[in-house]
Structures are given as structure tokens and as C-alpha cells.
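Subject: Sanity check before I submit

Could someone independently write out the C-alpha cells for this chain? I want to compare against mine line by line before I put it in a report. The sequence has 557 residues.
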Amino acid sequence: MLMSLFTIFGGLAIFIYGMKLMSDGLHKAAGERMRMILRFFSSNRFVAVLAGTIVTAVIQSSSATTVMVIGFVNAGLLSLLNSLGIIFGANIGTTITAQLVAFDIEWVIMPCIIIGVILTFVTRPSWRGRGETILGFGLLFFGMYMMSDELKLLANNQTVLSMFSFFDCAPRNGWMPFGAVLGAIGIGMGVTMIIQSSSACSGIIIALGAGGLINLYTAVALVLGSNIGTTITAQMAAIPANRIAKQAALAHTLFNVIGVILVVSTFWLRWGDTGEPVFFHIVNVLSGSSDLPRRIANAHTLFNVFTTLILTAFIPILAHICEAIIPVREPELKFQSLEKHLQKSPPLALVQTVSALREMLHEAWVMIDCALKTYARNDAANQALVKELPDREEGIDATQAQITEYLSKLMQLRLTETQARAVPVLLHCTNDIERIGDHAAIILEQIDQIKASGVGLSSLALGELEQLHTLLIEQVECASGVLNKQVAQYLPRADELKEQIRTLTEKFEDNHIQRLKDGSCLPVIGVYYIELLAEIRKVSRHIANITDRTKIIESVA
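---
Independent answer below. Compare away.
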């Protein structure tokens, strides 16, 4: 008995490890394609459901997909409405694992393990990822057969059978026992919460069914419980996130709870003359065989497909319910960057970093624009912005520190050659933007000194400053555009502006020196103005650095 338990738990450990290895390998292999799938997320709820199904079917983990989606929502890359469709689709995609383990393909186990082990020793990262996937696939089935074979032996033990009889959900006097159904749902929920994988729990349930320890009725109740239990992962991921992300996690829980209630309600509805509960009759008809593992897998798929089909039509209503339960405070509507859960997928982490850079660049430009306007404007609005400049500079410095830390952790992961080249580029861009914020403070100080002199700039100098200001506005627009992947549209003009501003600042310096010579400008003002031109040239150079690096950024983000 003791050895049997060791064998069962050993098989379970191998099964879970194999699933993790396969999921991680598939996740790495699919990471580069996540961005392409992400483009379809904003289309409509039905496309979002399809995208969630595809992503989860590829990476074999609904928890990973849901956590990723919560990360998208928290980072401002995805709306609550479209996130619900993806989460619904993830529940369909995760049923692929149960369908796989229900197959009797014992002959592939050893070849997969051998090939997988060999590939993991290959130096090329892409091949190592494939090796992990193949090895995980082999170990998953190896653990499954270890559990099933040992459970078949235990099925002859009356003590073991009596333990499982406590939550036996088979009909008694024609009706399924309500208490046993609730008990089985609770057990499935509790086990899944512990191991944090509904796919792993489904594999255990199929093994129990294959071993003859549970029937279809009990297995379905356990599966329903596991679908509720899997939502704990999303809830944990949403704890540090904003309230919109918490709404998405709540929606995931409500989806599964409502689905379980709908399906369980059919347990006491009989199908015609057969007397079978409606849900189980449909499962038996669809399965077309008496193979219990296959019927369990089909029941799992049917539950998720049925729930998704019903609730997809009510996504807007469900979103409103979540918004009512967890209302969003106004400050939290602001873009939040650098969601840590996205680090598991480097391509998406880089997309998020570029979004944070755009936000950071906007803040830096507000500072420059405000500083340059202070000479000609003294209205209340601009003065209010001037007072905010120290706080904005601190915010930019803090964002720089966050991005630097985020990218430093990203570099510790397995990156492709292109991704590895992009990380230092993004770091340089971050530094350039931070320096723009610093120059804004210097420009403001220089203009204050000019105003304090009581003399002021000549009309010619003011015209030159206005001209440079206009060009800087366009240059920043170009930088923002190329960061938004509109390279072809903005990059050529950005190159022109860089040269134009450099040429003009040099020309305006010469003009001002000439004004100093002919006495039309005082020396003290001349010094301040030349320093001001130098600062503008530096700002332009930092903006140009950002646009010059965009080709590398574009290839990964």
C-alpha cells in the first residue's frame, strides 16, 4: 500500500513537471508570435475569444494566459471588455491538455524523452526550447501511465474504494446526490487551488477514471470544481495590480462560477426515456464510445465551450457587473507601465517598455514646452505647469529607474539575438529621455535669468527661439511616431529636423555674436542666449538619438 502511494505521487510529480516543462517550452517557442496575436485583441469580443483559445492551446496553460491578460490590462495595453473575450477563449484552449492525456499513446513516451533530452543539450536556444517541449510531453504521459497503472491495482482495494464512495456522484434512485456533487466540486476546487493548474487536476481526474476509482459523474463534478479552483492564480496575480486588472480577474472567477451553476442545474434534468441527466447524455452521445478517459476529456471541453458560447453574448453586461463591484478611481485610469507578469514573455515585455518610453517622452516634452513658453507667456495655466516641473522631473527619474530595473531583470532571461540587442537600445533611449527632462530645468533657469536681467531678448532673438520651438515640436512628434511603429512615415522627416535644428542653432549663435559686435545686444544677455541655444541643440540631439535607434526597437516591439 505504501509503495503504491509512493508510485502514485511519484507519477503525479513527473506528470506535473512534464506539463510545466512542456508549457514553458511552448511558451518560449510561441513568445515571438504573441505580438501578432495581440493585434487582433482589439477587434471585437468574438475575435478576442478566438485569440484566447489559440494562445492557450499553444502554450497549454489557461493560468498563464489569464495572468498575461491581467498584465496587459494593468499595463494599459488591453481594455477590460476585450480582456474578457480572451479569458473566455483561454478556458476552451486549456481543454486541449485533457484531450491529449486521454489518448492511449504509450508508444511515444520513450522516443519523446530520448529526443527531448538530446535537444536540451543543443546550444541553440530555439532547439533547446523544442527539446523542453518534447521532453515535457514524454514525461507528462510517463507520469500519467505510472499513476493509471498503480491506481488500477488500488481499485481492487475495498478500503480505497470506500474512501472514494463518500463523494460518489452516481445517480441513486434515478437522481444524483446533491451533497456528493457539492463535495466533489469542493475537492476539485481545493486540489486545483493547491497545485494551481486545472490541466494538471484534469490529468489526475482522468487517471483516477482510467484506474477505475471514480465514475463519469464524479469525474465531471471534480472537473467543474477544478475550473473554479484555477481562478485563484489570476486572483493572486491581480493583488498588486490596478482595479481594472482586478475587474478582469473577477470576471474570470464569475465566468467559471456561472458556468458551473448552469451545468450543475442540468444534473437533475432527465433526457427523454433514457433517464440520464441531460449533460451526461450529451457527453455520451458526443463521445460515441465507452472509453471513460475520453468521456471525461469531452465533458471538460463541452463545459467550457458551452459556458463560452452562452456568456460571450453577455460580455458587456459582465463587464458592467465587475465595474460595479470593483469601481475604478479616477487616478487609476492613467497609464500604468512595466507590469511584471509580462516579463515571462520577452516580446510582450519589450512592447510594454516601448509604451512606457512613449509616456516618459511625453512627460519630458511637457517640461521642455513649458520652459520655452515661460519667456513669452505668464498666464495662470503655464505658471501652474512651471510649479509642477520639479515633480514631473522626479517622476521621470523614477520611471527611468523602474525601466532600468525591469530591463535588467529581462536580460537575465533567455533572449533571442534581436531581443538581446534591443535591451541596451531601450536603456539608452531611457537615458536620453531622462536627460531631456534635466535640460528642461536648465532652460527654465536660463530664461529666468534673462527675465531677471530686466533687459530681455531682442525681437530677432525671440523670432529665432520661436522658430526652434516649432521645429522641436515637430521633432518630438516624429520621435513619438517612430516609437509607435510608424517608422516609414516619421523617420525621414526626423532625420531632416535633426540637421535643420543643428544648422539653425549654429547660425543663430553666429547671428547673436554679430549683434554683440554691433552693440545691439548686451553681453550679459548674449551669454545666456548662447547657453540657451546650446541647451536646445542638446535636447534635439537626445530626441534624434531616440529616432536613430528605432530600427532595432521596431524589430522586437
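---
OP: Matches mine. For the report I'm noting this point. Residues 330-335 have pLDDT under 50 and may be disordered.
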